[in-house]
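Before going further, learn to read the protein records used in this course. A complete example follows; check for yourself that the lines match position by position.
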Amino acid sequence: MLLNWLAKIVNVIDGFTELTGKVISWFTLIMVLLTFTIVVLRYGFNLGWVGMQESVLYFHGLTFMLGAAYTLKDGGHVRVDIFYQNFSNKGKALVNLLGAIFLLLPVCIFIFYISFDYVAMGWKIMEKSPEAGGLPLVYLSKSFILLLSVSLSLQGIAEICRNLSILLLDSSQVPPLNTEAK
């Protein structure tokens, strides 16, 4: 019963993170096309718009802030541990579980906590770009910090549930983990 409940949590959060990752991949394409357009306009036609240049920064920030959870889900974060690679799947699950509980979630909560007033002030004053012709959406860009904390915390909860399931399973039922050192 508990394993089914944990599996449902993992599936829902992983599905959300997967969808987020697919959306981000389109943002990356848009960012590349915008950058190409900016370069062609600037050097080919001697034209430039600050707002267009800032929009690339917004897409860049959103890609990295929301992409962190997707990278965690796919095991793409760097692991440098000479001992971890030799652990059994249950040993790896225990390390991942403790890392998520004692490192990942506290860091996400801390980032959210220290950033909240900063983001709230931006929203309160509807902060705009200081550049002439810049985008009037700086408060949205600042909000990406909170999105990072929330999305990474959600994926952290999925990782906790996934690794807890592995630890609760019989050794013969433990699937291989996607945790190769990169």
